[in-house]
Amino acid sequence: MYGFTIVENLQKIDEHIKRHELNYHSKRVMVSKEFTFDAAHHLHCYDGKCKNLHGHTYTAVFGISGYTDDIGLVIDFGDIKTIWKEQIEVHLDHRYLNDTLPDMNTTAENMVVWCYEKMDEALAGYPNSCRLEFVRLYETPTSYAEARREWMTHG
């Protein structure tokens, strides 16, 4: 049977744990953050119901890898959120994607590459050798397109 423990002595830096102990390893690790947005679009040269104006609640998932810093972080989740909010979401959320994205057919396949390029550009020069590993863009809960680093850099 499992018991519950009440913490009586909260661990203190330099008293209970030393600063050099905060980073447990020196391995590359990937963190992931997920965002949702609502948008409308339609597809050109497509013979199906998506040729008509319609909307989706999209989900974008970003996988970012890097080496942990002196306190054990690759990148702060809040930093990923800031990049998303300021550089990507502003072009997507509650927008008509055919107007706000570069000239393209607004397929999930085209949009995921655009999202990849925007996040990759924002991460350039980030500490800890951060790099974008993948972006997954869900158009529905069961349908997504994915862009991976190896595909973006090697064709």
TrEMBL record:
<keyword id="KW-0479">Metal-binding</keyword>
<dbReference type="GO" id="GO:0046872">
    <property type="term" value="F:metal ion binding"/>
</dbReference>
<comment type="similarity">
    <text>Belongs to the PTPS family. QueD subfamily.</text>
</comment>
<dbReference type="GO" id="GO:0070497">
    <property type="term" value="F:6-carboxytetrahydropterin synthase activity"/>
</dbReference>
<protein>
    <recommendedName>
        <fullName>6-carboxy-5,6,7,8-tetrahydropterin synthase</fullName>
        <ecNumber>4.1.2.50</ecNumber>
    </recommendedName>
</protein>
<keyword id="KW-0456">Lyase</keyword>
<keyword id="KW-0862">Zinc</keyword>
<dbReference type="InterPro" id="IPR038418">
    <property type="entry name" value="6-PTP_synth/QueD_sf"/>
</dbReference>
<dbReference type="InterPro" id="IPR007115">
    <property type="entry name" value="6-PTP_synth/QueD"/>
</dbReference>
<dbReference type="Pfam" id="PF01242">
    <property type="entry name" value="PTPS"/>
</dbReference>
<comment type="pathway">
    <text>Purine metabolism; 7-cyano-7-deazaguanine biosynthesis.</text>
</comment>
